[in-house]
Amino acid sequence: MKNKCLVELMASLEKRNPHESEFLQAAHEVLESLEPVAERRPDLVEAGVFDRIVEPERTLIFRVSWVDDKGKVQVNRGFRVQYNSAIGPYKGGLRLHPSVNLSVIKFLGFEQTFKNSLTTLPMGGAKGGSDFDPKGKSDGEVMRFCQSFMTELEKHIGQFTDVPAGDIGVGGREIGYMYGQYKRLRNEISGVLTGKGLSYGGSLVRTEATGYGLCYFTREMLKAIGQSFQGKTVVISGSGNVAIYAVEKAVQLGGKVVALSDSGGYIHDPKGINLKVVKQIKEVERGRISEYVKSVPGSTYHEGCSGIWTIKCDIALPCATQNELGLESAKALVKNGVIAVAEGANMPTMPDAVSYFQENKVLFAPGKAANAGGVATSGLEMCQNSMRLSWTFDEVDQRLDGIMTSIYNAASGAAKEYGKEGNLVAGANIAGFLKVAEAMKAQGIAY
Ligand code: NDP
Ligand code: 2IT
To answer: Which of 84, 113, 233, 330 has fewest C-beta within 10 Å?
Structure first.
């Protein structure tokens, strides 16, 4: 990075947020991409847009106390970072995982601001969650936690203010418990959360949306070099919501998915993953991916997560968590001839691995573009809630496909316009930034 104003801004972020490594990583990537914008748009520098956009509008940290099945009082920490409302109400998921802290939620909220801008829908950026670990907890414990979490969060959200949704550890069950508590406290029926059950305002395709959208984006990226999923071998990490529906769509588009993982290890099934078995283990039994090998002869289980990237494949879709794919894994993928890497998770690829892919001419799709299908479909759920009607599966799916195609075009177009042709990281950051930046400038300095 050479631009003086951006170099100084990055230095001040490092000074003011010294312990926030994930946030600094995300901020550095975005600011680096925005260098040509800072050069070409002195008006945005003058309006302080760069300095303002890196600072969340509001950060909430709160106590979440609840009672476990043994009658013991437990205390967790809750977060909601309302990052940017320039183009619409705050919007973004809630993560329940022991690794959650302010740095993780800030990086996710920051990324969400640009991602939501790319969707073309009017949504600002936010993220929230807690260090609560849903693993091994009973339904009753999860319900009491979610109710206590919402008892505080309720004061800060609303259908026109801030609309949370799911992320790691938050799916239909948790959204249901949180929605029920919001309704109890407010006596209000509204689309305050997305990812709701279909019987109470949810949208068809929201469950599938992130994984499907990831494959639609990847399809467009491959199309640009005259390729497709047809006959390709695909490796997908994770085995949660995003990974499962990425498998489903990759197979529908003609690919063969041969591996999946969770935080314990990965399975390799050279014949092609049996998704019915995975859904039973993960969605019904909430079990471990290692159980797959008991049902599917010929498949193998391997301890540890990163080994999955040593499997030979044409397309790699990291769909688990941040920083799961490092330089060594990138080298193994390139050596084995990978042609495309698209991020289903948020920031799963470490910066040196991203550079390595780009230097080796591997097509690389950043999460804020490639995984935007989830929040885009959340936007479509909000739209249906406001209209008090529900669209069919095909109607939502077609809109999702259209949005993902337009995100690809916006990112590749912006990269070209700003002298970084083929660099979708830069293109997504620039295209996402410009819309928010224009809105911030137009609305004046104090928000
Ligand atoms: P889920 O909770 O459904 O699944 C998460 C998966 O990732 C699980 O297989 C989990 O394994 C694995 N995982 C989680 N944390 C770690 C870790 N620290 N190390 C290794 N593996 C880990 O979450 P989602 O599928 O919803 O989310 C996956 C990613 O996609 C996240 O980065 C999320 O931010 C992103 N995303 C999600 C969207 C959505 O709509 N849900 C939208 C856009 C992005 P285990 O069970 O062992 O923990
Ligand atoms: O990271 C993400 O984009 C999400 N977890 C989805 C957010 C949403 O509001 O649907």
So the answer is: 233
Nearest ligand 1 atom, CA 261: 9
Instruction: Name the residue type at position 127.
Output: K
What sign has the CA pseudo-torsion 149, 154, 156, 162? positive
- For ligand 2, pick from 208, 368, 378 the residue to mutate: most ligand atoms within 8 Å of CB: 378
**Fold of domain 209-361:** Rossmann fold (3.40.50)
Cα(244)–Cα(86) distance, integer angstroms:
33
The mean per-residue pLDDT over the stretch 230-255 comes to 98
Paired tokens of 16: 């003011």
Q: What is the pLDDT of residue 447?
A: 54
Measuring CA to CA, which residue among 162, 148, 103 is closest to residue 323? 103
Separation CA 61–CA 165 (nearest Å): 18
Among candidates 169, 302, 303, which has minimal Cα distance to 240?
Answer: 169
The position carrying tokens 């471990």 is: 288
Q: Which fold has domain 56-189?
A: Rossmann fold (3.40.50)
Q: What is the pLDDT of residues 266-303, one digit of tens each?
A: 999 999 999 999 999 999 999 999 999 999 999 999 99
Residue 120 Cα to ligand 2 middle (Å): 15
Instruction: Give the SS3 label for residue 40.
Output: helix
Nearest ligand 1 atom to alpha carbon 238: 9
Q: How many other CB atoms are found less than 10 A from the CB of residue 238? A: 29
